[in-house]
Specification:
Blueprint lengths: L8 E3 L8 H6 L10 H18 L4 E6 L2 H12 L5 E5 L4 H11 L3 E5 L9 H10 L5 E7 L1 E2 L4 E2 L2 H10 L5 E5 L18 E5 L10 E6 L1 H7 L11 H5 L13 H17 L1 H22 L5 E3 L11 E6 L3 H11 L1 E5 L8 E5 L6 H17 L8 H12 L3
Parallel strand pairs: 1-13, 3-4, 3-5, 5-8, 8-9
Antiparallel strand pairs: 2-10, 6-7, 9-10, 11-12, 12-14, 13-14
Bound molecules: pyridoxal-5'-phosphate (PLP).
Length: about 400
């Protein structure tokens, strides 16, 4: 009946599949957190996070998931009553903004559309209207993992500059760092954050933040600062203070190994791998869409992310159950406005052609087995694309 024995394949957009090397890196006896090994480990990670974010600014490692890193960014640069502008493109910037509101910040949303990326011209227009510069920070995500949109962070940075607005530009790169270009300094970003468990191929539990000098200046007078998240507390020479306490030893070994693997592959190759595999997924979805039962959530082809594809579909539960129970492939469910109305295919982190083609093949198998109308040959279109693009 079923063909699912063997390793289950996790195709959800985080946490993502971890390389065996990363799993093995954690398998070691307890270690002295005051040892040179740990001090050097922290130094190397803080340095390499600067490379990943492409910044000369300061980096910080928190024992936290993405929500924790959100709170780290907010508490270090904002004060009670500050106004911020949240650029909506799905669910995640809204979630970040909700955290700010709960902390006492005055949050204004720049309304977005679940089927579109942020429009930089609208950001510029809103900022130009803020002649008194009441907006203290602007929050955006690079990839919205719910809608599947990629926002043009560089263009938004330029729009902020064009408006001559001094607000801090804060960007969430949880579903994109290590998968696609991110240029914190080059794009005018003041604060960036990410997490260990998506493109960075490590277990959940580490939150990463980077801040430039402008943000660290604002930090000096921020009144939402609390001891655990506080940048100043973590900047001293004492290694113990880098984590506000005990270092997350095993997660650090895992993250060290994962970043080594990304650097060995070379980031430009990692980005290219993601773009090829994402396009293979899009070729398949394009063909399946001909059946009129499913289609891309994101309307504009150039606004579709290279890390996750959100497929709009009425009642996807049976398809997801088939893929999981019969074939051992776990797809992402629709979340937020798309709950029960979409599924998500992750192509983020430790993924290669067999993983992606296998996932597409299983989805196509499910569409067929369940009698869901779809254009035939989606997986074949993905194979054809890769066969033409990946030269022998
Ligand atoms: C997953 C995700 C988060 C939240 O991360 P958690 O580790 O689940 O708290 C934030 N932003 C984006 C864009 C994400 O994809």
């Amino acid at each position: 009946m079923v063909v699912r024995a063997g390793r289950e394949f996790l195709a959800i957009p985080g946490p993502t599949t971890m390389p065996d090397e990363v799993l093995r890196a954690m398998h070691r006896p307890a270690l002295d957190i005051y040892s040179d090994t740990m001090v050097q480990m922290t130094g190397s990670l803080l340095r390499d996070l600067g490379t990943l974010f492409a910044t000369k600014g300061q980096t910080y490692i928190y024992i936290a998931n993405g929500h924790g890193a959100w709170e780290a960014t907010l508490s270090n640069v904002l004060s009670r009553g500050d106004k911020i502008l949240v650029l909506e493109s799905g669910r995640f910037a809204v979630g970040w903004g909700n955290a700010a509101r709960a902390m006492g910040v005055d949050v204004e949303g720049l309304k977005g559309d679940w089927r579109r990326a942020i429009r930089p011209a609208e950001v510029e227009a809103r900022l130009r209207a803020d002649t008194r510069h009441e907006i203290k920070a602007i929050l955006a995500v690079q990839v919205d993992t719910a809608s599947g949109a990629i926002n043009d962070i560089e263009a938004i940075g330029k729009a902020i500059k064009a408006a001559g607005h001094p607000a801090l530009f804060m960007v969430d790169a949880v579903a994109s760092l290590g998968c696609m270009p991110f240029e914190m300094d080059g794009w005018g970003i003041d604060v960036a954050m990410s997490g260990s468990q998506k493109g960075l191929m490590a277990p959940p539990g580490l939150g990463f933040v980077a801040a430039n000098d402008r943000a660290r200046e604002v930090h000096k007078t921020a009144d939402l600062r609390t001891p655990y998240w506080d940048w100043t507390e973590r900047e001293g020479a004492e290694h113990y203070h880098k984590y506000s306490g005990t270092a997350p030893v095993y997660l650090l070994f895992a993250q060290r190994q994962a970043i080594d693997m990304l650097f060995d592959e070379k980031l430009e190759n990692v980005f290219r791998r993601h773009s090829l595999l994402a396009e293979a997924v899009r070729r398949a979805v394009t063909v399946w869409s001909e059946g009129q039962m499913l289609g891309f959530n994101i309307a504009e082809p150039n606004e579709r992310s290279n890390t996750v594809t959100t497929v709009a579909m009425k009642d996807p539960a049976a398809l997801l159950a088939y893929c999981k129970n019969m074939c051992g492939v776990i797809l992402g469910v629709g979340i937020g406005d798309l709950q029960g109305k979409a599924f998500r295919i992750a192509h983020m982190g430790h993924v290669n052609a067999p993983m992606i083609l296998g996932t597409l093949g299983v989805i196509e198998m499910g569409l067929q087995a369940l009698g869901i109308p779809h254009g035939k040959g989606g997986t074949e279109a993905a194979i054809n694309f890769l066969g033409e693009t990946v030269a022998a």
